[in-house]
Amino acid sequence: MLFNANCGGGSGSADRYVLLRSEPDGHFKNLLPEIIVSNQADVATWNLPTVSLLPVFVTADYLWEGMEAHYSSHFFEIRMYVYDGVADRYKLRHKYRTAHKYAGIDNWEQVPEVLARERGKIIEMLGVK
Fold first, then answer.
1. Which tens digits make up the pLDDT trace of 8-66?
2. Which 3 state secondary structure label does DSSP give 17?
């Protein structure tokens, strides 16, 4: 079960993600490392069977740089988490800073577009065949 908890405050908030799996002893195991993103983040799971048996978890969170305003466009940091069967948990595989700025959440008129627009580069970095 993919679970998201939000902690709000002021003009922003943080989302923490966990992926819980029920274990034979009745306890839950979190398969994700610590993943906390802002309310400006774009988050997705993609089925990429040539890369991972379980869906790839991808985040794009804004980077606040220089004199940018809250409503400004921002660069984003993309992070790709892939399931590691040997470790039996997800691990950060790659991360990078976008080459282009994208609108912040305050200017979104529809669902976030960062991951959709960066998908080609993400797929390339993951070595999808």
1. 765 667 889 999 999 999 999 999 999 999 888 899 999 999 999 899 999 999 898 87
2. strand
Query: What's the structural domain count of the chain?
Result: 1
CA distances 82 to 61, 75, 108, 118, 129, Å, are 18, 23, 28, 17, 15
Q: Which residues contact 64 (CB under 8 A, 6 or more apart)?
A: 74
Which one, of 60, 51, 127, lies nearest residue 99 by Cα? 60
Query: pLDDT tens for residues 59-100?
Result: 999 898 877 777 788 899 999 999 999 999 999 999 999 999
Per the structure, the complete domain to which residue 89 belongs is given by 2-126
Q: Is 1 exposed, middle or buried (0-12, 13-18, 19+ CB in 10 A)?
A: exposed
> How many residues appear in the chain?
129
Q: Which residue has the tokens 């002021």?
A: 10
Coil, helix or strand at residue 48 = coil
Do 95 and 78 form a contact (C-beta atoms < 8 A)? yes
